[in-house]
Design goal:
69% of the residues lie in helices and 0% in strands. By secondary structure, it is mostly helical. It has one domain: Helicase, Ruva Protein, domain 3, CATH 1.10.8.10. The longest helix is centred in the N-terminal third of the chain and has 15 residues, at 3-17. The chain is globular, with a radius of gyration of 9 Å. It starts with a helix and ends in a 7-residue tail after the last helix.
């Protein structure tokens, strides 16, 4: 994933979840750029609001 794609995904995940940059980056990295899996990852960690 390019840096531009990574930043785009982080921004999208932040908008969807209200979670900070660092946690979004971790979720994106852990889930190979998959937004839906990243949201689930954050929920399981208790970080994301249940939106």
């Amino acid at each position: 994933m390019s840096n531009k794609d990574l930043l785009t995904n982080i921004k999208k995940l932040r908008e969807l979840t209200g979670v900070g940059f660092k946690d979004c980056k971790l979720a994106i990295d852990e889930n190979n750029g998959d937004i839906e899996k990243s949201i689930e990852f954050l929920r399981k960690k208790g970080i994301a609001k249940a939106s």
